[in-house]
């Protein structure tokens, strides 16, 4: 049903009227935006927004920088640096999360293999030694660890320009982005914060409510804009993108990250 349909006009107007009746305060909206900037690690944008909105951040903006540095190191492939910074911040983050620790070590192995195989006669012994000392002892503790290690070591056998669909993603930027996002969430949890911005939770909740309404055959408009600048966007086709990819917000000097690698629409 669309607003242009004569028979749909009353339903559309009724729905629009109900939407207009919901009037969140400007302060609440500002704090939602601030929570998003802090949770996803945009300190420069958070500082600027706090000044422009004349609000007091509910967190230490300077503390965000630690997460930003860790995220930046992971995106650059400097996994050892990232692990050291995580341990400096809180050693329990990795000690109490074996899957995340293994994922970081496997990513470090991927980076070693990438370096070793960048030349035809590259020495692969550093990668083999790292796999033997760091990952092999952990692999038997979890079937998924063993499978991940075996797949990663297969990169030493096949040329990087002709990898199978199961191996190719290991060398793609998305793996770094995914691990960086998991690390960010783990740090937030250990600090007693929500691992995901409240604004994203609201977007997910709206998408869920719309899908439920459509499943129940409720009479709602065909398309519901999220109000993010795309009049044709619909929550039913919205994908959650958080903390990965890279683009640059020139006004804030923060790296804008989304899982798809696109510019984050909530920052850009």
Description:
By secondary structure, the chain is mainly alpha-helical. The chain has a domain of 133 residues. Helices cover 54% and strands 2% of the residues. The protein is built from 11 helices and 2 strands, in the order αααααααααααββ. It has a two-stranded antiparallel sheet with strand order 1-2. Strand 1 and strand 2 form a beta hairpin. This is Protein FYV10. InterPro entries: CRA_dom, CTLH/CRA, CTLH_C, LisH, Ubq-SigPath_Reg. It comes from Aspergillus aculeatus (strain ATCC 16872 / CBS 172.66 / WB 5094).
Which secondary structure elements does this structure contain, and how are they paired or packed?
Blueprint: H1 9-21, H2 26-39, H3 43-53, H4 61-75, H5 79-89, H6 92-95, H7 98-116, H8 125-135, H9 143-153, H10 173-190, H11 198-215, E1 247-249, E2 254-256
Antiparallel strand pairs: 1-2
Domain CTLH: 63-120
Region (Disordered): 222-268
Function: Involved in the proteasome-dependent degradation of fructose-1,6-bisphosphatase.
